[in-house]
Amino acid sequence: MFFRQRQMAYHAKPEKPDPLFAKMLQEPLGGQWGEISVMMTYLFQGWNCRGPQKYKDMIMDIGTEEIGHVEMLATMIARLLETSPIEQQEDMAKNSVVGAVMGGARVEDAIVAGMNAQHYIVAGLGARPSDSVGNPWTSAYTIASGNLLADFRFNVTAESQGRLQVARLYNMTNDPGVRDMLSYLIARDTMHQNQWLAAIRELEEDGLEMTPVPSNFPQELEKGEVAYQFLNHSEGTESQQGRWAQGPSPDGKGTFTYVDRPPAFTEDEGNLNPVDPRTYGTPPAPVPPAAAE
Amino acid sequence: MFFRQRQMAYHAKPEKPDPLFAKMLQEPLGGQWGEISVMMTYLFQGWNCRGPQKYKDMIMDIGTEEIGHVEMLATMIARLLETSPIEQQEDMAKNSVVGAVMGGARVEDAIVAGMNAQHYIVAGLGARPSDSVGNPWTSAYTIASGNLLADFRFNVTAESQGRLQVARLYNMTNDPGVRDMLSYLIARDTMHQNQWLAAIRELEEDGLEMTPVPSNFPQELEKGEVAYQFLNHSEGTESQQGRWAQGPSPDGKGTFTYVDRPPAFTEDEGNLNPVDPRTYGTPPAPVPPAAAE
Amino acid sequence: MFFRQRQMAYHAKPEKPDPLFAKMLQEPLGGQWGEISVMMTYLFQGWNCRGPQKYKDMIMDIGTEEIGHVEMLATMIARLLETSPIEQQEDMAKNSVVGAVMGGARVEDAIVAGMNAQHYIVAGLGARPSDSVGNPWTSAYTIASGNLLADFRFNVTAESQGRLQVARLYNMTNDPGVRDMLSYLIARDTMHQNQWLAAIRELEEDGLEMTPVPSNFPQELEKGEVAYQFLNHSEGTESQQGRWAQGPSPDGKGTFTYVDRPPAFTEDEGNLNPVDPRTYGTPPAPVPPAAAE
Amino acid sequence: MFFRQRQMAYHAKPEKPDPLFAKMLQEPLGGQWGEISVMMTYLFQGWNCRGPQKYKDMIMDIGTEEIGHVEMLATMIARLLETSPIEQQEDMAKNSVVGAVMGGARVEDAIVAGMNAQHYIVAGLGARPSDSVGNPWTSAYTIASGNLLADFRFNVTAESQGRLQVARLYNMTNDPGVRDMLSYLIARDTMHQNQWLAAIRELEEDGLEMTPVPSNFPQELEKGEVAYQFLNHSEGTESQQGRWAQGPSPDGKGTFTYVDRPPAFTEDEGNLNPVDPRTYGTPPAPVPPAAAE
Amino acid sequence: MFFRQRQMAYHAKPEKPDPLFAKMLQEPLGGQWGEISVMMTYLFQGWNCRGPQKYKDMIMDIGTEEIGHVEMLATMIARLLETSPIEQQEDMAKNSVVGAVMGGARVEDAIVAGMNAQHYIVAGLGARPSDSVGNPWTSAYTIASGNLLADFRFNVTAESQGRLQVARLYNMTNDPGVRDMLSYLIARDTMHQNQWLAAIRELEEDGLEMTPVPSNFPQELEKGEVAYQFLNHSEGTESQQGRWAQGPSPDGKGTFTYVDRPPAFTEDEGNLNPVDPRTYGTPPAPVPPAAAE
Amino acid sequence: MFFRQRQMAYHAKPEKPDPLFAKMLQEPLGGQWGEISVMMTYLFQGWNCRGPQKYKDMIMDIGTEEIGHVEMLATMIARLLETSPIEQQEDMAKNSVVGAVMGGARVEDAIVAGMNAQHYIVAGLGARPSDSVGNPWTSAYTIASGNLLADFRFNVTAESQGRLQVARLYNMTNDPGVRDMLSYLIARDTMHQNQWLAAIRELEEDGLEMTPVPSNFPQELEKGEVAYQFLNHSEGTESQQGRWAQGPSPDGKGTFTYVDRPPAFTEDEGNLNPVDPRTYGTPPAPVPPAAAE
Ligand SMILES: [Ca+2]
Ligand SMILES: [Ca+2]
Ligand SMILES: [Ca+2]
Ligand SMILES: [Ca+2]
Ligand SMILES: [Ca+2]
Ligand SMILES: [Ca+2]
Questions:
Q1: Ligand nearest E63 Cα, by number?
Q2: Which InterPro entries match (chains A, B, C, D, E, F) (predicted)?
Q3: Distance to chain B for C282, nearest Cα, Å
């Protein structure tokens, strides 16, 4: 059960409107690596958690925090849109240089063409639950497998991709209010990358999971001879130069070897047998017409 | 530029048909964490790579290997479907117990209801580029950000989720041929988890990237005071018990602190200003009708 | 900013596992008219609200309540899955009648075929953010236009479709624990239908919006002669018998008339002009090859 | 069975081409609340209707009318695209001011960047079945539940959102031909809002359905004590000021009450039981490796 | 502008309900190659047509016919669902053999598990605009390029894939009413395959378009030396045995040649240059942290 | 099993960066008719092929070639993005005319607004697996039915739509390096259109398949009287003028006839029966509340 406090977690106030940056800021709100994704991912991981209580509680903490991040971004975007295109059009129409260049006739298009058209037409100058090119957010971005190591690895990724995108956006604006909010989100992503890395160590120290995931699958059932081989599938051998091709493997259970031209394990060329002709696929040789009775 | 060898990488031959397991095996073929996903992810990471050659070559090697994994799974699924439902219907019709139970009339439905209907109707008993519940594969599953640490973390995740799913499937069949192929894929996932973990260490040792990603964003620009704080957003303090709430952070740059009831940093409640009434949103007070001239 | 209380809003405990009902219960969780949809819809309506504070506060109240409904359903589904298919297989294998019918060989398939395969393979017996046939939830289900009357009408719809679906599901189970939770959700949908209907009246009484939405578009700019005409586009005149074809219109601004065979307002047949041949569409007559220089 | 008349329902002729407005006009054609959505929604509601004939006939009338609206918009968009970018490039290249600004080299990009690229590349200057940011139309926008009150409430919403969007677009163009067509669509939306509101009253007067939907679910089976309570889930009590928090409920069956800090109905914190370890989720305590035999 | 006749184009009456076949019959209704796809494809091709009137009229004729095919399938599906699962449950419960097998407890699940759950929960026993595994129809299935030869080739494909799927479904039912309707759809697909093949010949005879499409692109601008070469990219030379590897090409403009081991045309290995470090991708060598000012 | 050669199949080097053309070039990479689509379509057709070996080998050859086309386009796009928006901003800021027009403040927006925002934010100046308006590629674009004639018809279409799009793009750039690569892709599409047309003839000559597809469905089971009728569904008779309305049909098995006003074959108006009231759809007359016990 959830409750809401009136204040936002942090400031979300731009110095001035900027509909074009509003479009870009949709990416950390409703994009694949945006705040809706981490909010939903952490909430589902928490609700589905069957592990120790400290993990469930920790996951729910961060999941709940992320709802507030969604709130901050949605508010910021709505404020970046606060001057409507119609007003901008009127302002710009007074600008003679622009008027001359654009022919004096369809000035509003120059602005609107660059906007996310749905910000105006669909949301009436509000935030959208979509990414920077307009794709709706999809729950395919929500990852919750029941295996906490597999999922915490995803979470480290999400906070890495997320911090990367916000850092890029930081470079695309010089609005002090926007940058202030981004500096908060970037700092929280620093924390969250560290938090999930720490949680991975905790899981291993608690003996609950380790590499290779899932560690409870009996490793003697896998095809052992290829479990630590690097297979070179392209010309050139630069790939031999990394630590992935020699020395002990990170799981401490094997030694990497390098196979320059990997052989096939089978003579099977993948040819298929014919099936019932009433499925009407193309057979190896002509067959007479037939249907089920 | 790519070339194909006739033999498959490994055996892909079931002992006998099993259309229901064919449906489930679509998950590691065309699901979010299936072979098409890693094939496309690694190929795009390689093509977009601007880092040292040894990384690009290594990424392309594994990307090319994964095309062969897609091939093995597609072939296996087509073979698991080789006895058509029509033939099974006829076989089952001769089984009097089934006939009695089902009423003697619509026996084929019992089989077909459990199948992926598109295996028969759309693909004519071939594999589909979709997951186990029929969702088409989407390139949203392809991750290539240009930042290799962010992406290698994704790759570790992908091989973890993938190995987890295949291990679960191993438990759902007792066909020796199917299990043999799965034991190969599980072993390769062991290798690939280790490979990406090794590549992460190499990246750090090469000084190219470290935590927090992206490490080239000047950390003094982030809101430092919240960069290592654990914020407790739910009742209870079990979340205080993990190493994510105290001690040095994994990046070696901070010390975790635990904030029991995190304060808001602002008095701002997120209220928005009115906008041009010609956008027809609901205003704070009634306004007269208007349209642009 | 949001906080979480440990207790759920209501009981979510089934008497016994039921993986097939778990599949169906995904619809009110992650389907088009499920709890994720109303949660996200109300939160976005609230964040984007530019109207009076009482509306914004009310919308945020219900949006926050819905997060708790998502929580209850996710928990219920995870519990309905608590006996794994493997255990069920072993139980059923002891049942000789089933064994005989199924041929004694692939009993687990009979159960698994009916399950949502991703409950097992992807989520490890946890809830999924998807609907009852496996489609991922999409933010296209989130509606927030900035116009509160347009949106409250959507909200009444959402609570109507939602209550309808849950009532149907009530009839498909006889588990007392499941039915208890459904009776709570159904009651809240009763409240929420009434709440949005009341909010619509309030909006009208506050003079903020009325029919036709948007009421601030000057109605003299619309093509008035067709604004209250019922146009009969199919054979038969049963459609003349309703109050939509005669008498005063609900907005109080017109009188319905019935047009039996509606005429076209134009002689224009929609034929198009040719365009630059370098777009390579099919022209009205042959043209010579050409390309831009 | 359907037939087509040569003339369109109304004029659809712009005064001059405008590829940027063509992009925006995709929203009422192929967007969530566009003409394809209402066409498909009404047709499916009609085909699935099991209620009285006057409803089915009325629904089919409007569904058939909407096909003609799709036709008008598609034609308008194709005409707005009639001057190709190549010609515009040549015209603009003669304009020295533009030439100077743009550097004289890549003038066409300035236009094409603002266009929907698929209008040119994919459709050869024709309309697309997509929205204003390029998302394909999806049948998730088609609503037909079998319950006419639930569906008519959706229909009122669709005509409200639709009229809202077209009114916004009216403000973004000053082409008399485009505005003329929009004034027709706006008027029909006025009619259709009224029509569905009238149909809702008719349903109630016919005794077929009322609030709460579905009215045929026995209301004594719902958890009555929460069926008319407003639950305050956020700080502040502005939400107490509306008619949704006090007085009789619109369905005439209850009285609203306001609960300031809603209690949980359960002590259950949603913790889950462990499951079969062969699903490889993270357990509460370490378990030995295992697989099905 | 469109009108509807009361009678359907053909009979659509099953002898008895069959919810499992109803699920499969969604494929030709709302699947990729179903009737909604051809309806929308032909209508958009017609509305966007800039070629001779006889083509536009012909395309609109078949587009309008297809609306009636959608109607027949939707009606058939609604009728196949007419006995509700609840009634079937009660009927089956009286059947002691079934009762014994199923354990007497959850009989309804056996039926419902095989059904499309949304037929009951979402549509109330009506048709859905989705395919046989529940994916919503998407306008990505609508093809209209402006080039009639490219599009007519698609149309031949659509009628081929469609007839193939319906023929497969014919074999999965023995209901005389269903088969009667399918025999009509199959016959119309025979006509439509022939119709589009004839239209292709007409286009060529009218000199409007020929192979290679688009024929108005000056062929001297393409890289002529590879325009008629078969490039062997896999081991083995069976592919040399077809008429695609030797002799005159079907367009009459070239002669096929077979290249056993195709060479690369370039020494370029696709390596990329470094970019501005403020994009935070991984560079070839370490760089100091930086951000835009 | 697949291997990669270092060199690309052809040159992929632009003369200079062009982020706006990079956006458009996503269409032939990740659009519906782009190289990923043909790559995946041909590979799946090959893996699922149950016909003669020469077909399977030929299909795999071209499928493998297409992987190299994806590679070329991804590389070209990454290179077109090589000057980052930040650098361009700095360059443009020095251009006083632009500075004056744009107001000197937000110059970067003018460029970024036209870019695909995800090229920068998500991919760090790399290629995306998406189309020109940002939709992710979906495996719904992959066609493999098991019937080679149905599929080869699709393949001819794909190479036609693909060549059409690339020819259009040729006209939108004057970069010699880009045009050189496009001239290669256009030539290969010429070959591939011819190749699939030749393969269709070969299939027919081998007696494996012919019109109407599937030819192995017994044609006497279709409703013969409508198998060669052209049904005129719209006003006007221009559609009578083509060879699709008279003379022998292309399959050589019938004679086209023209039906001016096609009659319905049934008096059935598609009305449905009532169903169990516990599904809560709207019935023909009021019923009392009820629920399953
Ligand atoms: Ca965050
Ligand atoms: Ca793999
Ligand atoms: Ca709810
Ligand atoms: Ca309309
Ligand atoms: Ca048809
Ligand atoms: Ca190609």
A1: 5
A2: Ferritin-like, Ferritin-like_SF, Mn_catalase, Mn_catalase_dom
A3: 32
> Which residues, at least 6 apart from F90, have a Cβ–Cβ distance to it below 8 Å?
none
Chain centroid to CA D168 = 15
Residue E204 has pLDDT above 50, yes or no: yes
Cα–ligand 5 centroid distance for C34 (angstroms): 34
Contacts of C among chains (3+ CB pairs under 8 A): A, B, D, E, F
Domains, chain F, in order of start with CATH, read 19-82+125-205 (1.20.1260.10), 219-259 (no CATH)
pLDDT at F105 over 50: no
How many angstroms separate the CA atoms of E76 and E21, rounded?
A: 10
F125, F198, F272: residue with CB nearest E243: F198
Q: What is the pLDDT of residues C6-52, one digit of tens each?
A: 999 999 999 988 888 999 999 999 999 999 999 999 999 999 999 99
Phi, psi of A2 (to 5 degrees): -125, 150
Q: What are the tens digits of pLDDT across the range E97-121?
A: 333 333 333 334 445 567 899 999 9
Looking at the complex, report in whole angstroms how far the Cα of residue F5 sits from the nearest Cα belonging to chain B: 5
Chain C residue with minimal CA distance to D201?
C243
Q: Which of A79-93, A211-225, C250-264, D118-132 has the lowest mean pLDDT?
A: A79-93
Q: Is the pLDDT of residue C100 over 60?
A: no
Q: For residue F136, what is the nearest residue in chain E, using CA coordinates?
A: E140
Q: CB distance E172–A292 less than 8 Å? A: yes
CA atoms of F60 and F49, how far apart (whole Å) = 10
Edge-to-edge strand ranges of the sheet holding A255-259: A229-231, A255-259, A247-248
Distance from CA of F153 to the nearest CA of A (A): 14
D109: pLDDT strictly greater than 80: no
Tell me chain E's radius of gyration from C-alpha atoms. 27
Which residues hold their Cβ within 5 A of ligand 4, which is an ion? D 69
| Contact state of B282 with C118 under an 8 Å Cβ cutoff | no
Question: What is the C9 CA–ligand 3 centroid distance (Å)?
Answer: 11
Tell me the longest C-alpha to C-alpha distance in chain F: 80
Alpha helices, H only, chain A: 19-30, 35-47, 53-80, 85-93, 96-102, 107-114, 117-121, 148-170, 176-205
The pLDDT, as a whole number, for residue C86 is: 59
Q: Which residue of A has its CA nearest to D271?
A: A50
Average pLDDT, chain A: 91
pLDDT digit string, tens, across residues E256-281: 999 999 999 999 999 999 998 999 99
Alpha helices (H) along chain E: 19-30, 35-47, 53-80, 85-93, 96-102, 107-114, 117-121, 148-170, 176-205
Measured in angstroms, the CA of C239 and the nearest CA of chain B are apart by 33
Q: What is the pLDDT of residues A200-225, one digit of tens each?
A: 999 999 999 999 999 999 999 999 99
**Contact between chains at B133 and C117 (C-beta distance less than 8 A):** yes
CA distance C164 to C166: 6
Confidence (pLDDT) at B90: 55
Residue D18 Cα to ligand 4 midpoint, Å, equals 23
D234/A contact by beta carbon, under 8 A: yes
Give the residue-averaged pLDDT of C117-126.
95
Q: Which of A60-69, D36-45, D224-233, E110-119 has the lowest mean pLDDT?
A: E110-119
How far apart are the CA of F207 and the centre of ligand 5, in A?
A: 27
